[in-house]
Amino acid sequence: MPYRYLVLLDSFTDQASPDSKTLHAQLVACGMECRLSLSGLKLYVGKETPSLALPGVGLIVGQVFPRAGDTSSSARPPTDLHPNPEQLLLARYWGEYIAILGGRHADEPARILRDPSGGAPCIYSIDGRRGFVASNVSIAEALGLCERRVDWDAVTHSLVFPHWRSARTALRGIRELLPGCMMRMTGRGVAEEAVWSPWDFVRPAERHHCPADAATSVREAVTTAVSAWADLDRSVLLELSGGLDSSIVGACLRDSEAKVACCTLTTPLSGTDERPYARHVATLLGEALHTLHIGADGLNLDFPPPAGAVMPGMTPVQERVDAALTAAAEHHGARSFMSGAGGDTVFCFLGNASPAADAFRYAGPSAGFSAVQDISALHGCTLPRAIGLTARKLLRGPKPSRPANLAFLGQDARLTEPMPHPWLEAPRDARIGDREWLTALAGTQCYPDGTARNRFRPVRFPLLSQPVVEACLRVPTWMWVADGRNRAIARAAFANKLPPLILNRRSKGSYVPFAGLLYARYRTGMLRFLEDGQLASRNLLDVAALRAFMSSDVPPKDVSFLRIFDLCMVENWVRHQGTGRGSSGLPAGLRPPARIDRQTAY
């Protein structure tokens, strides 16, 4: 785990308490040390975990970088962050961090801020003045501070709205502090608030009017983020998909002094072979391209999910890919993974007519009609068809934030609305495209759930870093489809950095056929896995519908079988949790510390 920390509250910090002494000894034995002590709060951090003291303010756990061009910033935060340290941190710095901030007065509650990228995890269980905040639930579990008890209401939610994030986790009494949010220890519990919002960067006053300026801003932000992580890690495994996003990350590594190992994945199906494209980027870096072959022999449905996963997030296909990348990092001695994941979302690849609708409504008829032409060229439809789609988008508004998926679910799994997320609280005058864009952006917070490879090495997602997200949000949606090209501003930003073959590429290989191959081979075992599982025993699955669907072959181009992988993902996660039952979201029962195995891996 790249970051290890544990915040203990009140009764666990009493020096005279036997529990406090025992906890301290156990934490020290596991390589953690107390780096901050405030009124009613102690922070323990793993010896390998970076931290930075903020004199008179608190402490940062994780990595922070100064904003490029901010002359008020230095390599370290200033000594005086008063009167609003959280706002100054968000404005002048970025990175992957949790900031533990003391009150300005003795009676003012402590605060914990999580950076907007979500790169440093943060879960907690607090009841009044008693509880903990941690980087990983396994730390608290190993210390006897909580138990893994499944929250079946939240599990049901993950079935209906897969790969969706909210503050409520699928473990009873365990909540997550979402990226860009801050929690205050009130003494009666916790008060959460969003102190960073993507909506602040899509306001008309913040948007670019010139595409060239927008491209320059995006290029500088992406280059800064990639270079900062590469210079820090010094040795990275670059995951090349052959597409635009990972290629942009690769191009930014060209001037880095970091050692870069380039790898790409292949499967038995030719449609997933991205080597002709990935090789161009490797050549650009002067490196060899290493191929990781993902075979179709065997499908592991019952595997340990990431130890810190408080929600289902890793499918059987992801588990296989993760294992291959982990082995490659070991072989090359890489200190971190670097991925272009999230680029489609950050670079506003919406795939519908909402950018044209935004242009009509906010930039005028001329810009609107130009955007309609761009939409027509982008999606290969006639101009009348593009006009009709734009008009319908203007009349009907944005698509639902997250439509419910009730396929193969039982009568006890009927929900219609997703759990709330602060980024979905749009202002009244929000643009249609911006609403859909920010909904998709919130969905990227699930990415860490699908990566077990971050246990010993961090996975860097530079395109999801705060400066990149902010720079991209300042670009109006219709600029992203200029000249009928998706992610147009990103292409313009790196036009002189990428090989033409990649810069002008419109398509990309898909792993859906490979998933279809695995499904066709192992659907009998997948059906048995679900029939005999806990979801079926709780009437959360429509077993008869599953049997009927899985007894017949999948028609060509039908991707409905992918739903089965998501169901297996949830079933597997549930099987690997504790045996506690119940479905309430009440605080977990905090119990006295138990003995801990010093070899426990968390």
| CATH homologous superfamily placement of the largest domain | HUPs
Helix amount, in percent? 25-40%
Main beta-sheet strand count, sense and barrel state: 6 strands, antiparallel
By oligomeric state, this entry counts as: single chain
Cα-based radius of gyration, to the nearest Å: 24 Å
CATH architecture of the largest domain: 3-Layer(aba) Sandwich
Overall pLDDT: 89
Query: How many distinct domains?
Result: 4
Q: What is the number of beta strands?
A: 17
Which spans have pLDDT < 50 for at least 5 consecutive residues? 579-602
Overall spatial form: globular
Distance between the termini: 7 Å
Going across the biggest sheet, name each strand in turn.
2-3-1-9-8-10
